[in-house]
From TrEMBL:
<dbReference type="InterPro" id="IPR008978">
    <property type="entry name" value="HSP20-like_chaperone"/>
</dbReference>
<feature type="domain" description="SHSP">
    <location>
        <begin position="37"/>
        <end position="153"/>
    </location>
</feature>
<dbReference type="Pfam" id="PF00011">
    <property type="entry name" value="HSP20"/>
</dbReference>
<protein>
    <submittedName>
        <fullName>Hsp20/alpha crystallin family protein</fullName>
    </submittedName>
</protein>
<dbReference type="InterPro" id="IPR002068">
    <property type="entry name" value="A-crystallin/Hsp20_dom"/>
</dbReference>
<comment type="similarity">
    <text>Belongs to the small heat shock protein (HSP20) family.</text>
</comment>
Length: 153
C-alpha cells in the first residue's frame, strides 16, 4: 500500500472509514427488515402436514372473514387468496370537511402438490382464524396401450 494511503485516504481516515462501513451495514440491515415486513404483509403463515391418505394445509387468516377467502384448485396446486377492504370516513363539521379513506388488501399463497388435484378431492373449513384444507391423495393409475403389429405393404 502506498505511503500516502491511496486515492481515498485524503477523504477518509481509518476511523471515518470504519464509521462509514458500519453505517452502510446498518442501512442494509434496515432495508432487509423493511423488505421482510413488506413480504409478511403480502402473505400469511401456512403449515402443511401429510398423512397416508391426505395432505392437510393450515393457513393462518385470523384477520379475514370466511367470505373474504377463496381457494382455487389448479392442476397440481391450490391457490389460497384472501381479500380485505377497509374504509374510513372522517368528518370535521366545524370546517365543513369530509375525508374518505379506503384500503384494499389481497394476500395469496400457492400450495404445490406432488399429484394432480380434482375439485371433488378438496375439502375446506374455517374457524378461529384458521383455514384448514384437506386434499385426498389419489392413487396413481396406470393405463396400458395395446400394441398392434405393423403391417408391411
Amino acid at each position: 500500500m502506498p505511503e500516502n494511503g491511496g486515492p481515498i485516504m485524503p477523504f477518509f481516515n481509518e476511523k471515518s472509514l470504519g464509521t462509514w462501513v458500519k453505517s452502510l451495514e446498518q442501512f442494509i440491515d434496515k432495508s432487509f427488515e423493511h423488505y421482510q415486513t413488506m413480504v409478511d404483509h403480502l402473505s400469511f403463515p401456512l403449515e402443511i402436514q401429510e398423512t397416508k391418505n391426505e395432505f392437510i394445509a393450515y393457513a393462518n387468516l385470523e384477520n379475514y372473514d370466511q367470505s373474504q377467502i377463496q381457494i382455487e384448485v389448479l392442476e397440481r396446486a391450490l391457490k389460497i387468496i384472501a381479500f380485505a377492504s377497509e374504509s374510513n370516513r372522517f368528518a370535521d363539521d366545524k370546517n365543513n370537511i369530509t375525508q374518505y379513506k379506503q384500503a384494499n388488501k389481497r394476500v395469496e399463497r400457492l400450495v404445490p402438490l406432488p399429484f394432480a388435484v380434482k375439485q371433488e378431492d378438496v375439502r375446506a373449513t374455517y374457524g378461529n382464524g384458521v383455514l384448514k384444507i384437506r386434499v385426498k391423495k389419489r392413487k396413481p393409475s396406470a393405463h396400458y396401450i395395446d400394441i398392434q403389429p405393423e403391417i408391411e405393404g
